[in-house]
Each structure stands twice: as structure tokens, then as C-alpha cells.
Design brief:
Oligomer: single chain
Strand order of the largest sheet: 3-4-8-7-11
CATH architecture of the largest domain: 3-Layer(aba) Sandwich
CATH class of the largest domain: Alpha Beta
Length: 394
């Protein structure tokens, strides 16, 4: 048994015959995490591995990764926080954080999957989060604010050069408010807002950033910038992106570019809050007795709808995405809050109440929900483009 590559100058280089099998014109050492086990399994990423065989965080969504000459064992995290794909043929299995390696188009690894390859045998099983019902109302009100604050604080630990995708809405402002409290002034995260110059989110971001006393980077876009960005992100994927993928993906791409230009390494997002606190319009149609179960299932599928796409885009710019609302303890807690509490007053009222306790300005706590593709003005522009193309028969 042998690896499909060699360690040279602390880089893992792919053997020629493996590169030919994958049919890639060029695979640099920066794209290799490990070679293969039994010359059959190959792992690829945007970083390299050191001589000691430890990854440098490229598979941040893995709860476990162990590789030696005889076997490979890995386990994806419960939610699929980081992009992870696999595929191949009867000769090789490829595991990667990008959806296409050479001629191979890969599929998303299900969250919670445990995979082991040992002496030519493959075993796969699953260990995912489970729905546990709901608790008494008094218990739900007591600790929610502390859990949100603790999750944001935990996501900031041992990290420098951090940005926050900021719209001036309740999700991003809550994250900003907590981070301001726990970070030293010299390491305080920088807010990044994306949108057309006259868009709602840009206006809110400017006003609220001043109230918070935090630095704001405005990524003002025009029609040409949006169209070029959509073309750029489409090249990252082996399938045609739908309209929502284009809208949200363009925002993530522009925010990541802006963060990279500023020298930032991490970007915090509010992903997961809608599913935790019933923030979407469709959640009104769910029966109360099944609301928590359906919200929980939406969280379990979030990697397919949003997380894989956003992580692929951000990591192509060298940016690590962080989602504090996807903290497992917070998810477990919120899944046990009585459904009727999530339906009171405005959408995400529980989060609004917690945000107020954390010191978020009242006007933000009262602001109507506005998804970032709408608040940035990008949805409206791309919809007009789609209609023009339909009229032209394209």
C-alpha cells in the first residue's frame, strides 16, 4: 500500500498517474490535502498538509479526520457547516471542499456521515442531530440571550482579522453588538455591507454602524459589477445556478472580496437564524404542532440550500465563513422552545427580544425582516435582467 503522492518541501505532490486518472490539466500542491489510501482515495482542499499529516483547518466541518497508509476515517459535522463533497468511479474516491475536481463532478457529503476505508472495504453510517420536542416556556426565556451571546463569543475566540456581513438588520446587528462587547478595540470586527448605493441595507448599515461605533466597509455595486460577479461564481460550480443562488452568491462573493482586500481572514454571517426563530413567510403556513420539527429539518438541509454554496464562494477568496447561530447547543435549545412562542408578534420576535436585552438599538429590533438579496437591491436588478432575457427569447 502507498500514498498517491509524495511529501516534498512540506507539500504533498500528486503522482503523474493519479493526475491522469483525474484528467486535470494542473493540480498544484496547494490544492492537495492528502494523497490516497491504497492509491484509491484522494482528498483535495484549498490548503496543504504538513509533514505531520495534520490538516490546517481546510476541513473545518469534519469532527474527525484520520489518515495513514492503511486506512482513512472521517466524520462530517452534524450540520455541514463547511463545504464537503465526494465522488469518483470504480477506481478512485475523491473527497474535496470544491464540487469539481478535474473531470469529476462531486456531490455533497450528508452531515453526520461517518466514513471509513480499511483494507479495501468501505463502511458508511450516520450520526446526526435528532429532534427532541419542546420545553416549558419559563425555561426557554431564561437562557436564550446568554446562549446567543455565548455562541457569538465562542465564534470569535482565538481569531483575528474578522469581518461581519452587515445589513443593519437584527441578525447582523446582534452579532456586531456582542462582538463589540467581547473584543478589544484593536481586534474589533469590521462591518461589511453590500448593495446598490441607494439600497435599503446600505442606508441602514451606515446609520447603525455609527450608533455601534464600529468601522464599516461599504461595497457599493452597480449593474456591471453584479453581472460580472454572477459570471465569476458560476465558474466555481459544475451546474447552473438558480436565481437565488446567483443573488446570495453574488453578495457573498463581493463581501469576501472586500474582506480579502482589507486583509481579513474570517467573515461572520447570520445564517441559521431564520430556521431557529421561524423567520420566513412560509413558516406561517406550518401547523403549530409540527413547526419545530419542520424548522429542525430545514436546519438539517441548510448545507444543500446555502452552506455549501456560500462556503465554496468564500473559500475561493481565502475567507473562512463563521455562523454563530449554527451552534449545536443553541440549536438544541431553540428546537425545544414552544412553537407558539415563535409565532408571536413580528417574525423572529424571540430573537428581537434577546437582541434588545443585549443592547441592540430599538429601531433595529423593530425593523421588518428583509432578506439580504432584497435589501441590497440585487434581487430587483437580476429579476429585471431575467425578464429582459425572456422577452428576447434567450
Amino acid at each position: 500500500m502507498f500514498f498517491g503522492g509524495i511529501v516534498k518541501n512540506d507539500h504533498f505532490e500528486l503522482l503523474d498517474e493519479v493526475q491522469q486518472e483525474i484528467n486535470a490539466q494542473k493540480i498544484s500542491s496547494e490544492e492537495i490535502i492528502y494523497g490516497g489510501v491504497d492509491n484509491s482515495i484522494f482528498l483535495f482542499g484549498n490548503n496543504i498538509s504538513g509533514k505531520n499529516g495534520k490538516t490546517r483547518g481546510i476541513f473545518g466541518g469534519l469532527r474527525k479526520l484520520e489518515v495513514c497508509r492503511e486506512f482513512l476515517e472521517m466524520e462530517r459535522d452534524f450540520l455541514g457547516r463547511k463545504a464537503l463533497f465526494w465522488g469518483g468511479n470504480e477506481k478512485i474516491l475523491i473527497i474535496s471542499d470544491i464540487p469539481r475536481v478535474g473531470r469529476f463532478i462531486l456531490g455533497s457529503v450528508p452531515p453526520g456521515v461517518r466514513f471509513r476505508y480499511d483494507e479495501g472495504r468501505i463502511s458508511i453510517n450516520s450520526n446526526s442531530l435528532t429532534f427532541t420536542g419542546y420545553m416549558r416556556i419559563n425555561a426557554s426565556k431564561k437562557n436564550l440571550t446568554q446562549l446567543i451571546a455565548g455562541s457569538v463569543k465562542e465564534s470569535l475566540q482565538k481569531k483575528e482579522k474578522v469581518g461581519i456581513m452587515f445589513s443593519g438588520g437584527v441578525d447582523s446587528t446582534t452579532i456586531a453588538q456582542v462582538s463589540k462587547k467581547y473584543c478589544k478595540s484593536e481586534s474589533k470586527p469590521i462591518l461589511i455591507s453590500v448593495g446598490f448605493e441607494d439600497s435599503e441595507d446600505v442606508g441602514w448599515a451606515e446609520r447603525i454602524s455609527r450608533k455601534l461605533g464600529m468601522e464599516l466597509l461599504l461595497a457599493i455595486v452597480d449593474e456591471e459589477k453584479v453581472l460580472k460577479t454572477v459570471e465569476k461564481i458560476q465558474r466555481l460550480f459544475p451546474y447552473k445556478l438558480n436565481l437565488m443562488d446567483e443573488e446570495i452568491g453574488a453578495i457573498v462573493q463581493i463581501a469576501s472580496e472586500t474582506a480579502k482586500q482589507k486583509g481579513l481572514k474570517h467573515l461572520i454571517t447570520g445564517q441559521g437564524s431564520e430556521e431557529l426563530f421561524a423567520g420566513y413567510e412560509r413558516h406561517k403556513s406550518y401547523s403549530e404542532c409540527n413547526l419545530n420539527y419542520f424548522l429542525f429539518e430545514e436546519l438539517r438541509g441548510l448545507h444543500l440550500r446555502d452552506l455549501d454554496r456560500n462556503n465554496v464562494i468564500a473559500e475561493s477568496n481565502g475567507i473562512n465563513l463563521i455562523a454563530p447561530f449554527l451552534n449545536e447547543e443553541l440549536i438544541s435549545f431553540c428546537s425545544r422552545i414552544p412553537p407558539y412562542e415563535k409565532r408571536r408578534d413580528e417574525k423572529k420576535q424571540l430573537l428581537r427580544n434577546a437582541a434588545k436585552e443585549l443592547g441592540v438599538p430599538d429601531e433595529v429590533c423593530r425593523r421588518k425582516k428583509r432578506a439580504m438579496q432584497y435589501g441590497s437591491g440585487i434581487h430587483g436588478f437580476l429579476m429585471k435582467q431575467r425578464k429582459k432575457m425572456i422577452r428576447k427569447g434567450l
